[in-house]
C-alpha cells in the first residue's frame, strides 16, 4: 500500500507540471464535421442523393483535417511541455 501512495503522488506531480495545450481549431473542425453530416443526412432524407453524396465526401475531408490538426498539435507541443 505504501508504494501505491508514492506512485500516486508522483503522478500528481507530473500532471501538475505539464500544461495542457488546447487548440481552438479542433472544436471548430468538430462542429463543421457535425454540420456537414447533418446537412448530408437532411439532403438524403429529402431525396437529393447527389447533393447528399457530395456532402458526405466533404464530411470526410473536414473530419480528416480535424484529425490532422489534432495529431499535428500533439506532435508540435509534445516535447515542449
Explain what you see:
- This protein is mainly α and 81 residues long.
- Helices cover 83% and strands 0% of the residues.
- The protein contains three helices and no strands.
- The longest helix is centred in the C-terminal third of the chain and has 30 residues, at 49-78.
- The mean pLDDT is 80.
What keywords describe this structure?
3 helices; single chain; about 85% helix; mainly alpha; about 80 residues; RCF1
Radius of gyration: 20 Å
Q: Mind summarizing the main beta sheet?
A: none
**End-to-end C-alpha gap:** 31 Å
The tally of beta strands, per DSSP, is 0
Mean model confidence by pLDDT: 80
What would a concise description of this structure say?
By secondary structure, the chain is mainly alpha-helical. 83% of the residues lie in helices and 0% in strands. α2 packs antiparallel against α3 (49-78).
Topology:
Layout: H1 2-17, H2 25-45, H3 49-78
Helix pairs in contact: 2-3
Amino acid at each position: 500500500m505504501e508504494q501505491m501512495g508514492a506512485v500516486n503522488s508522483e503522478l500528481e506531480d507530473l500532471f501538475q507540471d505539464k500544461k495542457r495545450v488546447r487548440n481552438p481549431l479542433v472544436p471548430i473542425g468538430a462542429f463543421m464535421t457535425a454540420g456537414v453530416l447533418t446537412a448530408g443526412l437532411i439532403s438524403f432524407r429529402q431525396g437529393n442523393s447527389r447533393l447528399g453524396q457530395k456532402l458526405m465526401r466533404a464530411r470526410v475531408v473536414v473530419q480528416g483535417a480535424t484529425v490532422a490538426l489534432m495529431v499535428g498539435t500533439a506532435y508540435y507541443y509534445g516535447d515542449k511541455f
